[in-house]
Structure formats: C-alpha cells, structure tokens
Design a protein that fits this description.
The protein has 198 residues and is mostly helical. The protein is built from eight helices and two strands, in the order αββααααααα.
Length: 198
C-alpha cells in the first residue's frame, strides 16, 4: 500500500479505471437495461480499484467518480433529481467511500475462508455488492438529510416509499451486477499480479 504512488503498474490501472468511468458516464454503456428498470454500473471501476489496489486508491477513484457525477449534473441533467447532485455533499461525498468499503468488506470476508479459490470468488463478489450498496445507501442518506422535502415533492411519494422502491429494484440489481463483474476482473488482476511477482 505504501508503494502505491511509486508503482507505475498500479497508477496505470487507476488511470484505466478512471477512463472506463468517464466512458461509462458519457455513453449508454453506464446503464444496463433490466426490463422495467435500468441498473447503473458507473461505480464498478471504483469498487474494483478499491478491492485490488486498496483503500487509498479506492478513495481516489471514488472521489473521481463523485466529481464526474457532479460535472454530469452540472452539464447534462436528465432527471428531476439531477439538480440536487450539483451539491458535492450529494454527488461527491457518498461516492468517496465506495472503494474503501469494498476493500474492507473484501478483506473481512477473505479472512473467513481457507480455500484460496473460494476465498477470492466469494470475497470479491461480496465486496462488489457492498460497494454498490454503499453508493446507494449513502446517496439516499445525504438526499434525506439535505433534500428530503425536494425529493418527496419531485417524485410525489413519501421518502420511505421511495427508498423501499429503490432498494427492492435498482439497488439489488446494481449490487448483483457489481458483484458479478467485480469477481472475474479482480480475480484476473490477482492472478496476473501473482505471476508477475514470481
């Protein structure tokens, strides 16, 4: 971890994840259509970065995602809630913790298993899900603390109903997709890293 900023390979990986995040934000690739709902996947590079490079890189990547979300809200608002994301407390602050939480959940689950193959499979999947749920939970917490009235008026439902709807549709879908995508990408990185260090 202390050598992160001295490692060209890690910095290259961080740059690649940032480029992928920008592409996902600027194109329709950032949303996976699932019938009546659409699952956002722009936060997955932050999750992967946190898991494979550690909490500092995860924090950098999560902050970068938040800044991209802020710019998106300022330049390309698409929904009635987008103007609320012009506030950095909504767009940036919650995203800062995505990669950090992903890393610590991954590490905690990793310690529970002794079999190496099962270790990485389960821990990266759950770490990916945890990062996605962190994003949803913290964004909605900040929306509730700062803009509860505006959200209720804009969506025409109580905040409890809105949260229930989001967490039983988009949040679950996004968490599962995050886990599924994070698992093979992180596993490939760990395998590559292991062979490079032999």
């Amino acid at each position: 971890m202390k050598n992160f900023f001295k490692s060209p390979r890690d910095l290259t990986f961080l740059g690649l994840m940032l480029a992928i995040t920008i592409i996902l934000d600027l194109t329709p690739l950032g949303a996976v259509p699932l019938g009546a709902i659409s699952a956002t996947i722009t936060h997955i590079p932050a999750i992967i970065t946190g898991i494979v490079l550690g909490p500092i890189a995860g924090l950098i990547m999560g902050t970068s995602l938040g800044i991209i979300s802020l710019i998106h809200a300022l330049t390309r608002p698409m929904t009635i809630l987008d103007p609320l994301f012009m506030n950095p407390l909504i767009s940036v602050l919650p995203r800062m913790f995505i990669g950090v939480i992903s890393y610590y959940v991954y590490r905690a689950i990793n310690m529970l298993f002794k079999k190496q193959s099962l270790k990485n499979t389960v821990s990266t999947f759950i770490g990916g899900m945890a990062g996605s749920l962190t994003n949803t939970a913290l964004v909605f917490l900040m929306l509730y603390l700062i803009y509860a009235k505006e959200v209720v008026e804009g969506l025409g439902a109580s905040f409890g109903v809105i949260i229930f709807t989001v967490f039983t549709t988009n949040a679950i879908a996004e968490a599962l997709i995050s886990g599924i995508i994070t698992m093979p990408v992180a596993a490939a990185y760990f395998r590559y890293n292991k062979t490079r260090n032999m």
